[in-house]
Amino acid sequence: MRYSFFILIILHCSGCIKATVTPMFEVYYPQGQTSSHGLVNEIHISTNENESLIEISSQSGIGSGIIKLIQGDWPEVVTARLYLKSLEGFTVSSEQITIDKSALSVSAYDKNGRLYEKKYLINERGYYEVKLPNRLFTDGSNRKDSERSAQFFYDVVTEIGVDKFYQTFYVTNVSWIGYIKNSKNINYYELPVLAQQIVYYAFQAEMEVIAPTTIISLSSEVKKTVDNLFFETEVDTELQLPHPNYCSFPNRYDMYKAKYVELLQQFVQ
Question: Shortest CA distance to 220 belongs to which of 195, 198, 246?
Fold first, then answer.
């Protein structure tokens, strides 16, 4: 029997504001999906700020999946763990590159986690681990994500009415500048404390000019920021909506568009 697996990694929108530091993923591979052989394949992801483990189970030994980062940044370490009896083929791709098994670091372990000397032939209970290289996650214009998010926001504005929307709302960011550390995008709230203070000072200066009565945050981290900055003011910071990138997936597009419009219409004269 041939055992091979394919993963497509889709990078997040580098210009988006992430809702939390901890990464969140969307898997285009239904849990418990049955293959053409009538056997069950599954993908599970466990993650924290520094590491993600992608666990792949395949009774047939042949399959593919797509994993998309929808919030946060890719962790420093990403490992694919495959519960297969042998591994003849393994390919992982991002929007920019494709890497075959021959160019990857592959290790085989028995069911107790002991390392096998023979990497590609287990023939008993155990698993393979593949360390996914950082170059899969560090680049890409992510135009598809950007265009999808922009289309969602455009549809909301169109539904409300362009003139009414921009007569009522001012759209901005806590920081308009992108930041990079160790070749990875980071958020303003991951900057050193002094740098964060400069960002907050500039944002507060902007808000003094705009003089808003209400600020609607599009992520939980942004809400934490504005809650702290405007705690002793009359500015209402209680409202929050999910980020457009999260809302723009087809399976939730209409529902979140309706939520956006319902909330925003309350402010339109």
Answer: 246
